[in-house]
Amino acid sequence: MAKTGAEVLVSTLKDLDVEYVFGYPGGAVLPIYDALYGSSLKHILTRHEQGAAHAADGYARASGKVGVVIATSGPGATNLVTGLANAYMDSVPMVAITGQVQSGLIGKDSFQEADVFGITMPITKHNYLIKDENKIEAILKEAFYIASTGRPGPVLVDITKDALMNYVSKSGSKQRLELQGYRVLKEGHPRQIAIARKLIKEANKPLIYAGGGAQDASKLLLKLAENFNIPVTTTLMGIGAFPGNHELNLGMLGMHGTPWANLAVQNCDLLIAIGARFDDRVTGALNKFAEKAKIVHIDIDAAEIGKNVPAYVPIVGDANTVLTELIDDTRLSHKDWILEIQNFEFPAQTAKEPKRGDCVNCTEPNMHFAELPPPCRQKDSVDPKVVLELASSLFKNQLIVATDVGQNQMWAAQYIKIEKPRSFITSGGLGTMGYGLPAAIGAQLGRPKEQVVLVTGDGSIQMNIQELATIAAYNIPVKVVLLNNRVLGMVRQWQTIFYNGRYSQTCTGSIPDFCALANAYSIPSLRVKGLDDLDEFKVALKAEGPYFIEVAVDPDESVWPMVAPGASLCEMFHASKAPTPSWQRGQNDE
Predict the structure, then answer these.
(1) pLDDT band per the 50, 70, 90 thresholds, residue 353
(2) What is the pLDDT of residues 526-585, one digit of tens each?
(3) How far is 349 from 298, CA to CA, in rounded Å?
């Protein structure tokens, strides 16, 4: 029986073992939604296309599968742009299927027409425009292959409405994909691997620096560290690739990394980078980064080798394959080096009353509910460390953490110990506020037997807060922990340190009443104002179904330590140690 292009698309998704599709219907994709009617594919109707993209992203990160999102032409497709850019920066396998106006209407400023192929070219691993229904099956299979192999990334498939509606006259390709010009290198060069192994055995102060590319090589990463007795630091994207409570784990490095990790980087004599790209938030000043170390850089993407930091031993290949060849039965000991790290001296955390200027927003009328105090004078508050460590202890190995971006993200990275790979779901490279809530939805559906806890802020959550409706509609048991300081916390922290406390447009105020809003979505809620509420907090986290928990946080609570842009990793400071920012010294950020 002949099938339409849309019916072939749906059957191909099933052949590719797709379980969940996230999306939002519209005119150009109505043929797809008609084909989905009665299909075994599980479609999750989000309340915004950006939410659908982030949900597909979160699903992919947690499950290790390709995330799939569908959007209509024009504004539906352009609403995916942030989600695609986010997935591209963090190397997330995702296929975005967008509808396009009919072939004959392209280029005529037709209703809901946008050149999404051109728009997304810089932020996708590859993209397609399909006008021929007979190519849908083959191209869709290509898209999944490209998205999931090599360095993963998003692929966009834009399909005209007539191609979706027309009947397919011939079957797509069933043979093994051989894409001209696309080559995936898995095996590292044997000579380079042998040199790296020799350097490891000769090093006195080796350090492993694991990024997001180490997530699927976690077992071998553990073996490498334990066999050779090498301490490990991870990037934000690498959290979970190495067990959080392991005695060799120094924690995260970088701008808000642990002092031990940052000082270890600056004092090591060999740095083994695995699946990491030497991002500026990790390295600080490039010319001061790991100055004493020879660098072994293992990455599947040759373009990353030497892009930011020169590699003494470059190894292009899959982390699993390379580490399998790199590790042998040798047992090493670096007790003196580990003891040195444990005894590093660094500035103690010292409290300082922040410089208080005028909070511009607070002078505006109707900024706060009359019965509530101004946000910058919030009386009731809880230390975020207390609630996050408590959440971490409740679930242990069954915890998946999703975060938004800002102080909430850094506190989660610092205080929650993640024991398993693919269990810390966050926006790294793009730093996308509004990512957390929809990503938590995707992560929970991707790992339904584990508990997803979203750590978010009052600024971030309002960017995609409509996805509370998605949680309620599908009864997705995400636990939302909102750290509400009534300000844009990280931006305000920078204003405190670098702009003399001139709080311009960073006070979000007491609107809305988040618990009342959660209740409006039929989601139970709890407001935590102090330590006396922590017993209820534990009950809420363990409850069946979704729960919304608002935690009052002092607006002056900051993320420490911090490395200023343009500074060395060893130049960590607290409120009393703020150096002159690089842009005020007339230097480049790097």
Answers:
(1) very low
(2) 999 999 999 999 999 999 999 999 999 999 899 999 998 888 998 887 655 444 443 344
(3) 35
127 and 252 share a domain?
A: no
What is the spatial distance between Cα 344 and Cα 260, in angstroms, rounded to a whole number? Answer: 7
Say what the pLDDT of residue 355 is.
53
Query: In the prediction, which pLDDT does 349 show?
Result: 44
The answer to whether 206 and 200 are in contact (CB under 8 A) is: yes
Q: Say whether both 32 and 133 belong to one domain.
A: yes
Domain check: are 409 and 533 in the same one? yes
The phi, psi pair for 176, rounded to 5°, reads -65, 135
Cα-only R_g, the chain = 25
* Structural domain that includes position 310: 190-342
Q: Residue 298 and residue 295: Cα distance in Å, rounded?
A: 10
- pLDDT tens for each residue of 443-479: 999 999 999 999 999 999 999 999 999 999 999 999 9
Q: Give the containing element (helix H, strand E) for 139.
A: helix 136-148
> What amino acid positions are annotated as catalytic residues?
49, 111-112, 161, 490
Same structural domain for residues 129 and 19? yes
> Which amino acid, 465?
I
100: confidence class by pLDDT, cuts 50, 70, 90: very high
Q: Are 18 and 445 in contact (CB under 8 A)?
A: no
Burial group, residue 442, by CB count within 10 angstroms (0-12, 13-18, 19+): buried
Residue 160 in domain? yes
Task: State the CATH number of the domain containing residue 71.
Answer: 3.40.50.970
In the predicted model, what is the mean pLDDT of residues 98-121?
96
In a domain, 180, yes or no: no
Judge if 152 and 195 occupy the same domain. no
Per the CB < 8 A criterion, the answer to whether 406 and 433 are in contact is: yes
Q: Domain check: are 317 and 413 in the same one?
A: no
**Containing H/E element for 69?**
strand 67-71
For the record, the structure tokens of 523 come out as 């989601």
pLDDT in tens, 489-540: 999 999 988 888 888 999 988 899 999 999 999 999 999 999 999 999 999 9
CA atoms of 152 and 88, how far apart (whole Å): 8
The two structure tokens encoding residue 531? 């330590």
Mean pLDDT for 2-25 is 97
The C-alpha atoms of residue 584 and residue 500 are separated, in whole angstroms, by 13
Residue 179: pLDDT band (50, 70, 90) is confident
Are 454 and 364 in the same domain? yes
pLDDT at res. 176? 52
Residue 77 CB-density burial (10 A; 0-12 exposed, 13-18 middle, 19+ buried): buried
Please list the alpha-helical segments (H only) found in 327-379: 335-342
Q: Describe the strand order of the beta sheet including 154-160 as a list of residue ranges.
A: 42-45, 20-23, 67-71, 94-100, 154-160, 126-130
Where helices occur in 521-568 by DSSP H, the ranges are: 534-542
End-to-end CA distance of the chain: 61
Based on the structure, what is the number of domains in the chain?
Answer: 3
SS3 at position 18: coil
The letter for the amino acid at 216 is: D
β-pair partners for 425: 402
